Structures are given as C-alpha cells and as structure tokens.
Amino acid sequence: MSADSPGTGPPSGPVPLLARALAFLGGASLLVAACVTTVSVLLRWTTSQPIRGDFEIVSIAAGVGVFGFLAYGTLMRTNILVDSFTTWLPRRLNAAIDAFWLLVWAAVTLWLAERMTLGALDTLRSGTRTIGLLALPFWWAIAIGAMCFAAAGLMALWWVPRLLRGRS
C-alpha cells in the first residue's frame, strides 16, 4: 500500500520534513546541472568557448541531485515493490513483510552512509580532486551522499513501527 493512498495524507513531522528538504535541494542541484549544460552548449555554439570545467560541475551537481531524492523516495514508499506472490496474504502480514524489507533497506543505506562518510574523510585528508580543468575538491559531495543515504535509512526506520502498528 502506498503512503499516499486514499484516506491518508502524506507523512508529516520533522523526519518527513528532512526528506522533503533533501529532495528540494536535490532538485535544485539538478536544475543547476541543467542550466550549466544549457549555457555551456549555447556558449560553445555561439563563441566556441564553453563554460570552463562544465563536465566537472555537471557530474558533481547531477550526482548530488540524485542522492537528494533517496530519502523522499523511501518516505513516500515509491521504491520498487514486488508483491506478486503476497497480494493474497492478509494486510497485516503484508505490512510485516514490508517492515522487514524496510529494515533491510535501512541496514544497507546506513552501512553505505558509514562507508561514504569514511570515504569523504579519506578524500578530504588526501586532498583528492576531480580530474579536469577545475580540479575541484569533491570530499563534500561524497559527504552529502553519505548524509542522503543516512536520511534514507532514517526514513525506512521511521516507517517500520508504523507498518507494524497497521498504519501503512
């Protein structure tokens, strides 16, 4: 059952607000990537000189943008659900199965968040930069990805007790 099914509004409170804020920032980041691409193509067409480092800027902005939507997708339970074999089961049992898989998703996303946090710290310590014209430091983009994975894990954990109490 979807979070936005009839009779229930979208989830509210501070945890869902975090997911919405990250999705908004992810959308803004993708908008920046689209604008940089558009301006760079127009400049390349009119002046033969694109925005310097456009590939670096767009790749980082797009990556950060995509990470921004993970928590919101989990909050709204719009991830891929395969219920072909469980539709005949009672609703409460289906909710318990969903809660189990959300726990698995939470474990995976929180583990990825921890790994990416270590990766961001290592990238910061080593001074690693993008390979290109701008040589941008990108530890901060990895840290944002880690935060987004952690938020997705938090959203999954937010759902588990609600599903087990029958509030899906």
From TrEMBL:
Membrane topology: Multi-pass membrane protein
UniProt domain Tripartite ATP-independent periplasmic transporters DctQ component: residue ranges: 34-165
InterPro entries, alphabetized: DctQ (IPR055348)
One Gene Ontology cellular component annotation held by this UniProt entry: plasma membrane
UniProt keywords, alphabetically: Cell inner membrane, Cell membrane, Membrane, Transmembrane, Transmembrane helix, Transport
Transmembrane segments: 20-43, 55-75, 95-113, 134-160
Keyword Transmembrane helix: yes
Cell compartments where the protein resides: Cell inner membrane; Cell membrane
Main subcellular localisation: membrane
Pfam families per the UniProt record, alphabetical: DctQ (PF04290)
Molecular function terms, GO-annotated: transmembrane transporter activity
Iron keyword on record: no
Quaternary assembly: The complex comprises the extracytoplasmic solute receptor protein and the two transmembrane proteins.
Family to which the UniProt record says this protein belongs: Belongs to the TRAP transporter small permease family.
Functional summary from the UniProt entry: Part of the tripartite ATP-independent periplasmic (TRAP) transport system.
Identification of the protein by name: TRAP transporter small permease protein
Species this chain originates from: Falsiroseomonas bella
Species lineage: Bacteria, Pseudomonadati, Pseudomonadota, Alphaproteobacteria, Acetobacterales
